[in-house]
Design brief:
CATH class of one domain: Mainly Beta
CATH topology of one domain: Immunoglobulin-like
Number of helices: 8
Function: Cadherins are calcium-dependent cell adhesion proteins.
CATH architecture of one domain: Sandwich
GO molecular function: beta-catenin binding; cadherin binding; calcium ion binding
Main location: other
Distance between the termini: 191 Å
Subcellular location: Cell junction, Adherens junction; Cell membrane
Structural class: mainly beta
Number of strands: 50
Strand order of the largest sheet: 2-7-6-3
Shape: elongated
Radius of gyration: 70 Å
Strand content: 25-35%
Largest sheet: 4 strands, mixed
Helix content: under 10%
CATH superfamily of one domain: Cadherins
Membrane topology: Single-pass type I membrane protein
Oligomer: single chain
């Protein structure tokens, strides 16, 4: 059956010019390219039925003009389907008679500048009007589509011929415009067999010379290399493996023709290979689980959330066009279809009212994404889960569980919970829609109670904040209301159960006695005698309904002036009340008393009594200062300012009266006093000169009391000579201290006598020393015991004591270093450079009886000899060693050696005679 010609108008938009004239609005930036990436054309059955087509015949009046941004660009259009072509004006037409259009036809249109490497692509899809669209693609249909794509390729691609024609004017020749090489379309994921021939490259000069063909570019000799190759002799171009459009959608190769010597015989031509997309990728959700929320009670059409899926296939074709739908909803309450989804955007919205969080708090939605524009027959699908949380609104007012609550509270207690008010609220726990707020609306005008909300249980804790009195109120009837922290949602009415009554019973307790006036202030004059009744300080028992006895005792009385009657609280003095006492502060004396009842348990209260003591004139003034100083000669500045102090208070103090007494008469004769003000007076010399000394001047001071009190005070005035500045001189200060001239002379005489006695004592000592030195010695110098003293270098403290200089213990061999030493401080262990003392001379044949006298005389001479060692010095050594390993001499046992012969002691001379007599056993003399 013959089918008529179809003319399709496809929009090829490049945009407007990028420039603009002055004063005109700017136009959008021009972007060359097709207006759409995918065109779907529905062909009317009436147009095609029973009509034959003529080649290059147009039956449509619809036409879109192609507009280039540069206005000079020449664009050529190429169709991938040999049955359809595109004219330069963008019109798609049938190349030959179409035998059958019972199935959709899809092909690609490529636009390319003739002298420009830019390429634009679009897809055209033809479908018969009234036919189901899109048609389901079975396996056979897909293979058929692939075969059609393979078969639609141009069989031979020739190198363009170069046509030249002469010019009659200047003989110049111009080259004819080259033909546009149509693109080569290769379907992705083809099963082969491979290598599969795509096209043959041929040159018209292959008849004259031997031609060798080659291809270059990405996919041939550049990465990814090896996908395309060409037979160099025949020019057949092959694809060697399946292609994946998602990896690479197009290839740009260049075909070359050279002779056997490698010389270029044709200009290289550009080959564009496009990978035709197949639906081989499922839509993929960005998340497997989506979380959204919508408020309960929302109206239909309220936005909930959006899910998004992407498809790696070409989004300009149906392969990559994703559509969404909801597969299931759980739970189905209140209806199975509470939500709908926008098939193109993935936006989920509500479609019905009735969302109630208290019934269903969360919905689970299974969403499906399908490509091929959602066609379930041949589209690929994927699913995701959408969790929709129903957010709470305050659509449930709180409800008190009962209409009446009751409780008890003891009187005079605070911060005691009377009762707990329980409430029920179905809104979201621990949210402002659930948190309860309680208010007392009646029954508590004095504000004794308040209601605090328990944040955990939401209960209302009715608490006493102000003490209640059983004698005043035995019970309370309160009315409370409860509401939420947040306002109720619009249209929700509060229930009557939000109001309840509370009955509170007050429990009577034994209250302590209370002093009606506390503290109590009374006024009395100081000095009232002991036993005076001041007041009755009585307390009252608040328990009017119980008869109890109140007793009193003293709790605090710092000065111990008061006592209280135990029965009636009468206050009586025990001593004089003195306003000037240290226990009185600001004329007030405080005492504390205790009142207690005989209840069970016993209760007690305290009261403070304040006694304001009125001052009486019971203290005489005292003169200030008590000591002063003036010059012995009357000067203008030789005056003494005096005043007085009085322990009393006004008006029993100043102004004071100062006067000199009549006796002794010398006071008024030598001194005078004048009043400066009410509290001050001035004392000065009446006579021009007064001997230096200390004077005691009596002055009579009187206060202004009624009657006034006087006091005779004495001021000690020191009169002394003064310098030009009016200051006492040093001599004058001594004289004025109370010592007369005779006393000073006596002190000087005593000092002279004492110095004379010291001088006589020194003279006597020197004389005695000379007499002692002139006395002869009792022994002969030859027998001087000092000549028999053997000096040893050192004996040390043992083997470990070898590092000490013991030369200080030795007597100097000569006195030259001492004699030549300059005057000044000498070492105390050096021998003095003075004449040696004379020791007694020993007779040639002394009698044994004279030996004792001789020794005593020598001892006295040595004691008084300053030249004898150790010269009044004591040498101190820090360490003498730990001792010799040889053991102590005292450890020897004298009896261990048997009898010892001591006869040799007789040969040692008379000095050892005594030892010889004791141990030697010789004859007695």
């Amino acid at each position: 059956m013959n089918v008529g010609c179809v003319i399709l108008a496809c929009t090829l938009l490049v945009g407007a010019s990028s420039g603009s004239k002055a004063g005109q609005p700017l136009k959008p930036l021009c972007r060359p390219g097709f207006s759409q990436n995918f065109y779907t054309v529905i062909v009317s059955r009436d147009v095609l039925h029973g009509q034959s087509i003529l080649k290059d015949t147009t039956l449509s009046s619809e036409r879109v003009k192609f507009e280039d941004c540069q206005r000079s660009r020449e664009v050529g259009f190429v169709s991938s389907d040999p049955y359809f072509s595109v004219r330069p004006d963008g019109t798609v037409y049938a190349e030959q008679e179409v035998a059958n259009l019972s199935e959709p036809v899809q092909f690609m249109v490529t636009a390319r500048g003739l002298h420009d490497p830019h390429i634009w692509e679009t897809t055209v899809k033809l479908a018969l009007a009234g036919h189901p669209h899109p048609l389901p693609l079975t396996k056979v249909g897909i293979e058929e589509m692939l075969s059609r794509v393979w078969e639609s390729q141009p069989r031979v691609i020739k190198f363009p011929r170069k046509h030249q024609r002469g010019s009659s004017v200047n003989g110049l020749r111009r080259q004819k415009r080259d033909w546009v090489i149509p693109p080569i379309n290769v379907p992705e994921n083809s099963r082969g067999p491979f290598p599969h021939m795509l096209v043959r490259i041929r040159s018209d000069q292959d008849k004259d010379v031997g031609i060798r063909y080659s291809i270059t570019g990405a996919g041939a000799d550049q990465p990814p290399s090896g996908i395309y190759n060409i037979d160099p002799i025949s020019g057949n171009m092959f694809v060697t493996q399946p292609l994946d459009r998602e990896e690479r959608a197009s290839f740009h190769l260049r075909a070359h023709a050279v002779d056997m010597n490698g010389n270029q015989v044709e200009n290289p031509i550009d080959l564009y290979i496009y990978v035709i997309d197949m639906n081989d990728n499922r839509p993929e959700f960005q998340n497997q689980v989506y979380n959204g929320s919508v408020a309960e009670g929302s109206k239909p059409g309220s936005s909930v959330m959006q899910v998004t899926a992407t498809d790696s296939d070409d989004s300009t074709t149906a392969n990559g066009m994703v559509r969404y739908r909801i597969l299931s909803q759980s739970p189905h309450s209140p209806i199975p279809n509470m939500f709908t989804i926008n098939s193109e955007t993935g936006d989920i919205v509500t479609v019905a009212a009735g969302l109630d969080r208290e019934k269903v708090s969360q919905y689970t939605i299974i969403v499906q994404a399908t490509d091929m524009e959602g066609n379930l027959n041949f589209g690929l699908s994927n699913t995701a889960t959408a969790l929709i949380s129903i957010t709470d609104i305050n659509d449930n007012p709180p409800e008190l569980t009962v209409r009446t609550f009751s409780g008890e509270v003891p009187e005079n207690k605070v911060n005691v919970v009377v009762t707990n008010l329980t409430v029920v609220d179905r809104d979201q726990p621990h949210s402002p829609n659930w948190n309860a707020v309680y208010r007392i609306v009646s029954g508590d005008p004095s504000g004794h109670f308040t209601i605090r909300t328990n944040p955990i249980t939401n209960e209302g804790m009715l608490t006493v904040v102000k003490p209640v009195d059983f004698e005043m109120n035995r019970a309370f009837m309160l009315t409370v209301v409860v509401s939420n922290q947040a306002h109720l949602a619009s249209g929700i009415q509060s229930s009557l159960q939000s109001t309840a009554g509370v009955t509170i019973s007050v429990q009577d307790v034994n209250e302590p006695p209370v002093f009606p006036v506390n503290p109590k202030m009374i006024r009395f004059e100081e000095g009232v005698p002991a036993g005076t009744t001041l007041t009755v300080f009585a307390a009252q028992d608040p328990d009017h309904f119980i008869h109890q006895i109140v007793r009193y005792s003293k709790l605090s009385d710092p000065a111990n002036w008061l006592k209280i009657n135990r029965t009636n609280g009468q206050i009586t003095t025990m001593a004089l009340l003195d306003r000037e006492s240290i226990y009185v502060k600001n004329n007030v004396y405080e005492a504390t008393f205790l009142a207690f009842d005989n209840g069970s348990p016993q209760a007690s209260g305290t009261g403070t009594l304040q006694i304001y003591l009125i001052d009486v004139n019971d203290n005489a003034p005292v003169l200030i200062p008590r000591e002063a100083q003036v010059c012995e000669r009357a000067r203008p500045n030789s005056r003494i300012n005096i005043t007085a102090s009085d322990a009393d208070a006004d008006p029993n103090v100043g102004p004071f009266v100062f006067e000199l007494p009549s006796f002794p008469s010398s006071v008024r004769r030598n001194w005078t006093i004048s009043r400066l003000s009410g509290d001050y007076a001035q004392l000065r010399l009446r006579i021009p000169y007064l001997d230096a000394g200390m004077y005691e001047i009596p002055i009579i001071v009187s206060d202004s009391g009624n009657p006034p009190l006087s006091n005779r005070s004495v001021i000690r005035v020191k009169v002394c000579p003064c310098d030009d500045n009016g200051d006492c001189s040093a001599t004058g200060a001594v004289a004025a201290a109370g010592l007369g001239t005779g006393a000073i002379i006596a002190i000087l005489i005593c000092i002279i006598v004492l110095l004379s006695m010291v001088l006589l004592f020194v003279v006597w000592m020197k004389r005695r020393e000379k007499e002692r030195q002139a006395k002869p010695l009792l022994i002969d110098p030859e027998d001087d015991v000092r000549d028999n003293i053997l000096k040893y270098d050192e004996e040390g403290g043992g083997e470990e004591d070898q590092d000490y200089d013991l030369s200080q213990l030795q007597q100097p061999e000569s006195l030259d270093h001492i004699i030549n030493k300059p005057a000044g401080v000498r070492r105390v262990d050096e021998r003095p450079v003075i004449t040696e003392s004379q020791y007694p001379v020993r007779p040639s044949l002394p009698h044994p009886g004279d030996i004792g006298d001789f020794i005593n005389d020598g001892l006295r001479a040595a004691d008084n000899d300053p030249t004898a060692p150790p010269y009044d010095s004591l040498l101190v050594f820090d360490y003498e060693g730990s001792g010799s390993t040889a053991g102590s001499v005292s450890s020897l046992n004298s009896t261990s050696s048997g009898d010892q012969d001591y006869d040799y002691l007789n040969d040692w001379g008379p000095r050892f005679k005594k030892l010889a007599d004791l141990y030697g056993g010789g004859d007695d003399d």
